[in-house]
Amino acid sequence: MSIEVRRATGDDVHGWDAFVEQSPHGNAFHQYDALEIQAAHAGAELVPLVGRKGEEVVGLFPLFRINKGPIATVFSPPPELRVAYLGPVLLNMDHMKQRKREGRHHEFIDDCLDWVREEIRPRYTHIRLDGRYDDLRAFSWNDYAITPQYTYHVDLSPGVDDVFMSFSSDARSNIRNAPDDAYTIEEGGLEEIEQIVEQVASRYESQGISYRSTSEFVRDLYTTLPEGQVRPYVLRIDGEFAGGILVIDYKETVSRWQGGVRTDVDSDLAINDLLDWRIMRDAMDRGRTTYDLVGANNRRINRYKAKFNPELHPFYSLERNAAGMKTLAHLYKAIREGV
Fold it and tell me: Start and end of every BioF2-like acetyltransferase domain (predicted)?
């Protein structure tokens, strides 16, 4: 029996989030409401593909179609929203022996890509995958160019004391020496989301870099996804906003999604060190095992992130251009967000 790939409808959509939660490749942005929000804010058409072998779901593949005049393009995740990873998720394969698992996996990807070529006929496709999705051969065989990129993961499983002692001496000193009465850190809500995104956008614009992710996008996620999946952490000095980090909390991982930029606040406090440590402590209290620092591709920023003794992890960007579309690919390199 072959795999049937089709656009998700009805029961597929109803069970979508449960399938995402079961898959080792699923993250918060794979959830169906999150996909619809991404489509709305990207000006894209959501194309949620599902693969079934009989009654068994073998994989999901959310895609976003964006038309530029007569030219169709496909993304996963969509550009400009600063969503780090998306792409396909696999299901019900871990129990299989290697040959059968590979065969089912590769058939699912082949069939999805065939569906896209036949139904959408894109001239340009871009997919970005979490490093946990580590068998990319089916994409390579379908003429996708694969570029490794990197992020940092802090292992939270040793517990508070051991994690803290693994930090660099300056990070430990910055945290230990901060007077408790000099600042407050709290989880905020819609107002704090606005403050964090505005601070990040201002920082990027001061460097001549466009920042198109909006507070409206984050607010929609915050109010629509299950409580606690989007966590806006803010640090205040004398009651005034000084800095913040937007955290995505899903399954065993918390992710440093947006924020944590260098601030213009006149203070001796290491604002971001304190924020990151509070996020990690809270995550360990909730039983999370990984803090994804979301990106390790900027040499200057890496010097900051590396103080937390993280492990380097790959993720992957995949591209496919139709003949004669190198100019379009170059254009999208300018608008795709780096992480």
Answer: 169-305
Q: Mind listing the pLDDT tens digit for each residue in 128-177?
A: 999 999 999 999 999 999 999 999 999 999 999 999 999 999 999 999 99
In the block, tokens 């906003």 appear at 241
Q: Of how many residues is the chain composed?
A: 339
Check residue 156 and report its DSSP letter. -
Please choose, from the candidates 276, 206, 202, the residue with its C-alpha nearest in 3D space to the C-alpha of residue 246.
276
Mean confidence (pLDDT) of the chain: 93
Token pair 């698992």: residue? 101
Q: What are the backbone dihedrals phi and psi of residue 332, each rounded to the nearest 5 degrees, phi first? A: -70, -20
CB 80 within 8 A of CB 133: no
Separation CA 53–CA 96 (nearest Å): 14
Report all structural domains of the chain as residue ranges with CATH numbers, in order of start. 4-149+317-335 (3.40.630.30), 157-288 (3.40.630.30)
Determine the average pLDDT of the residues in 244-257: 98
Q: Is the pLDDT of residue 330 over 60?
A: no
- C-alpha 124/C-alpha 328 separation (Å) is 7
Instruction: Output DSSP code: residue 269.
Output: S
Cβ(88)–Cβ(61) under 8 Å? yes
| Helices 215-224 & 32-42 angle (0-180, nearest 10) | 160
- CA-based R_g, the chain, Å: 21
Give first-to-last CA distance, the chain, whole Å. 40
Q: Looking at the whole model, is its pTM more than 0.70?
A: yes
Phi–psi pair at 125, nearest 5 degrees = -135, 135
Mean pLDDT of 81-102: 91
Residue 338 is encoded by which pair of tokens? 């780096």
Determine the Cα–Cα distance for residues 108 and 293; give it in Å rounded to an integer: 31
Number of H helices, E strands in the chain: 12, 13
